[in-house]
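Team,

Forwarding the record for the chain on the shared tracking sheet. I've put the sequence and predicted structure together so nobody has to dig through attachments.
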Amino acid sequence: MTGRPSQQNKIRLFQQKVLIIKLQYVGDTLGVIPVVANLKRHAPGLTVDVLIHQECAQLIAHHADINKVWVYDREEAKKSFFSAITYHLPLIMKLRREKYDIVIALTQGDRAFFLSLASGAPLRLTYNTNTLSARMMNAFAVEQTGRRHFIEVDVDILNYFGIENRNIQLMIPIPDGVRTKIKGGLTPGTGSKGIMVAIHPGARKKMRQWRPDRYAQIALNLYEQYQASIILLGGPGEEQLLSEIESRMGFAAALKSCNLSLIDMAAVFSECHLFIGNDSGPGHIAAAVGCPTLSLFGPNYPVICRPYIATGEVIFKNLDCCGCRQEEHLCIRPENTCMDLIEVDEVWLKVKMMLAKTNCEITFYSTFQSNP
């Protein structure tokens, strides 16, 4: 069973149990959402479970179309050969007891393919691939060629079932209790519209990060010209980065934290007028709760992995070396990297344009009226 199905051999979906496996980082994991939503829209009787990395589970745990979220602890699974065995055996037995009819591996890799095979599902679907490990799969969807966004690639898996007219929309359900808790801890700006802007200056790799002094200047402009509340968020180990930016801003952030859970972070972004950050997972979270995003891209192509939202903007220099391994010692322009080429003025211009679209009232102080 390979390729795009014809009308004669199309797999019918009705009351089957489906498991979707997506073992990747936060942003990539959100691609599960439109796949599940379109499967359920096409066949409401399906039971759809997902298997994702442990840290991502809270982002989709409350999604109405998902029956069960299986969490995969990659740290435990990779700790040693012995731990890999003791971790996977109980997981495999639990998966087999579910008696899945279909397993869809959105991650193309040995681990996802192995778990698909071990589940005992009679139909094991992934994309067309020539890797040796793909022999553990027995059904293959055809994805479109060309450089495309990873979410659009994920929904190509639906080609196998002949599902067309797909709605590609991200949505992270935020529990009322989480939303209430976050609202209670946020103080809107003093301007008439209470503007709040979230800045997430970190990234998984150093070469994706814009300079902290430049983020601080953008924050200061927002404070002086819009009386905006500035929210500084980071991940584990980024406390010093946030402190440096806050110190350079010259005023206290309305909220500064490196300890928020991902679902708390989603709730914060849902209250903001704008998200500003690098090519990293939080930008995808902001997009999935409807917050306009301004993303600064350097080593990666935004067409592949930008936040998937119509109100999102990207600044990207598209150098010939784009797509590099993102290792500092290998950079061919260490004195003026792709991220360094992004200037404060062009970011500020984009910020003003985006806030104008939200119909936020701009309060200018006379000493700043000459600013770009």
